[in-house]
Amino acid sequence: MRKTKRYAPEVRERAVRMVLEHQSEYESQWSAIESIAPKIGCTTETLRKWVRQHERDDGKRAGLTTDERERLKALERENKELRRANEILKTASAFFAQAELDRRLKK
């Protein structure tokens, strides 16, 4: 199983800033990413994702911003909790309804 390595936010910001500042020195942004990623100690794909997310956050690229992603995760978590609570309430309701029927039949 592969363990994901966490990078400090400062490292991420510095890496993205380096790509954006030095991409004009390369023939493409990808070339800049390929050159800078080993210097930072991350994979090229990781750095590419950081750059793309930074572009989304700045409005230069379509997609969800970091804040929107966090809000979506929170809403999905809340939705999951509410669904679980509804299932518990349905089960309890059915249990008590059955108990009430049994009580009426025994009279």
Topology:
Blueprint: H1 9-22, H2 29-40, H3 44-57, H4 66-106
Helix pairs in contact: 1-2, 1-3, 2-3
What's this entry about, in short?
By secondary structure, the protein is mainly alpha-helical.
Describe this structure in words.
This protein has two domains: 63 residues, Winged helix-like DNA-binding domain superfamily/Winged helix DNA-binding domain (Arc Repressor Mutant, subunit A, Orthogonal Bundle), CATH 1.10.10.10; 42 residues. Helix content is 76%, strand content 0%. The chain contains four helices and no strands. Helix 1 crosses helix 3. The mean pLDDT is 91.
Feature tags:
4 helices; 107 residues; mainly alpha; Arc Repressor Mutant, subunit A; rod-shaped; 0% strand; single chain
Q: Which descriptor suits the 3D outline?
A: rod-shaped
By CATH, the architecture of the largest domain is named Orthogonal Bundle
Q: How many individual β-strands?
A: 0
What class, by secondary structure content? mainly alpha
Q: Return Rg in Å.
A: 26 Å
- Which parts are unreliable, with pLDDT below 50 for 5 consecutive residues or more? none
How many structural domains are formed by the residues?
A: 2
In CATH terms, the superfamily of the largest domain is: Winged helix-like DNA-binding domain superfamily/Winged helix DNA-binding domain
- What do the pLDDT scores average to? 91
User: Tally the helices: what do you get?
Assistant: 4
